[in-house]
Amino acid sequence: MYTIHRMTVQPFALLPDPELIEVCLKGSGQAWEVLLVRYQRLIYSIPLRYGLPEHDANDVFQNVSLRLWENLGGLRDRARLGAWLVITTRRECWRMMRQRKPDTTVLEEQALEEILPTGPRSEDEFLILERQSQVRAAIGHLEAPCRELLSLLFYTEPRPAYSEIARNLVIPEGSIGPSRSRCLEKLMKILEDMGFADV
Hints:
Blueprint: H1 17-25, H2 29-50, H3 54-71, H4 81-100, H5 106-115, H6 120-140, H7 144-154, H8 162-169, H9 176-193
Helix pairs in contact: 1-2, 2-3, 2-4, 3-4, 7-9
């Protein structure tokens, strides 16, 4: 899988999709990178479920990313970006499979549709995306020290070593574990106040 690496905390990682899209439309390369990282696994999962090899999954990811860029300003419901990406990725998979096997029939496409996540599996993926969005929103309500620490720990790829986190935040390395625990407790309280079901 083609991996997008982030070496530093992206200032946009905690924004909900509609706000992140708005920043992308203003020309921010960092916001675009955050958006791609956020949906990378979802996009890749679909061609792999179709049985496409990894190099084709890479092509699907690139093509879907291009389509997203071309259509970003015209999305009707930015909060449902995940659904738009699933539909677009499926269409891209079908297009690629038709190119590989031009005699694919409508019946074969319908059979392919049956192996894709259209039921509970798909709903589970969207539920996960929704929960991730809620957690990002809750982290956004934390004070800066906790927000920065949790962003480095959970939203930075590849995950930095404690020594690197300590340098970035100018704190002792030994304080990261206890600070993380306190910050997670504060995050849990915010999530409870937001009505997050699984806290």
